[in-house]
Amino acid sequence: MRNSSDKIFIGTMSGTSHDGIDICAIKFSNQINLLKFNSFNYPASLKKWILENKVVNSNKVKIQKSEYKSQEKKNLVKNKNQIDSNINIKDFLVVDARSKERFEGKVPDPRKNVRSGSIPNSFCLPFKEILNEDNTFKNTEEISQKFMQIIDIEHNNIVFSCGSGVTACVLALAYSLVNNKYSPKIYDGSWAEYGKI
């Protein structure tokens, strides 16, 4: 039970963890009580940033109003009809970011009502093959070598796919790091749409 003289402190405990953030809630009254203590791991990218002694601060960012107007670039997102017609005309390459087992149909798809397999004439490069153990990108030379195993890395008309459209973005970004003329293109529906039963 809390009385009016109780004070609650919620904050971080500095210097207690190099792998994450320790957060506590302490009640001050007649005695000091630790109400809650949680330790949250840093995302791998933030942990790497800190270990590289890069600047981290708690400065508040002042967001200023802008007159920025966005323009949708419809050519960067493909739909199922465009993927289907491309199977015959081969206007662009499709690279799938899923595991080889899923791509080759050797394991069932984790989603209900989605068959196993892949888009005809597509290539497979599992997105994990371009990442380090801490989920940061490998260096550009290693990324280039991975792409060169399946495609010509000078090719600018590549569409990335995966299970749901998310990890396709990882490969598209990685490809843009090794081919600076490439604008990332995604089949947003990916295998969840294409493989639907």
Fold topology:
Blueprint lengths: L6 E6 L7 E9 L3 E10 L2 H8 L25 E2 L1 H10 L3 E4 L3 H4 L19 E2 L15 H9 L9 E4 L5 H12 L7 E2 L2 H5 L3
Parallel strand pairs: 4-8, 5-6, 5-7
Antiparallel strand pairs: 1-2, 2-3
What does this structure look like?
The chain is α/β, with parallel strands linked by helices and 197 residues long. The protein has 2 domains: 7-51, no CATH class; 77-194, Oxidized Rhodanese, domain 1, CATH 3.40.250.10. It is built from 6 helices and 8 strands; from the N terminus they run E-E-E-H-E-H-E-H-E-H-E-H-E-H. It has helices at residues 44-51, 80-89, 100-103, 140-148, 167-178, 190-194, and strands spanning 7-12, 20-28, 32-41, 77-78, 93-96, 123-124, 158-161, 186-187. The strands form 3 sheets. A 3-stranded antiparallel β-sheet has the order 1-2-3, with no helix packed on it. Helix 4 crosses helix 5. Mean pLDDT is 83; it is low at 13-22 and 34-39.
Q: Treating each run of at least 4 consecutive H or I residues as one helix, how many helices?
A: 6
Give the helix level as a range of percent. 10-25%
Average pLDDT over all residues: 83
Strand order of the largest sheet: 1-2-3
Quote the beta fraction. Answer: 15-25%
Can you name the CATH architecture of the largest domain?
3-Layer(aba) Sandwich
Number of domains: 2
**Quick one: CATH class of the largest domain?**
Alpha Beta
Outline the biggest β-sheet. Answer: 3 strands, antiparallel
Choose one word for the global shape. Answer: globular
Weakly predicted, low-confidence segments: 13-22, 34-39
Radius of gyration: 24 Å
> At the fourth CATH level, what is the homologous superfamily of the largest domain?
Rhodanese-like domain
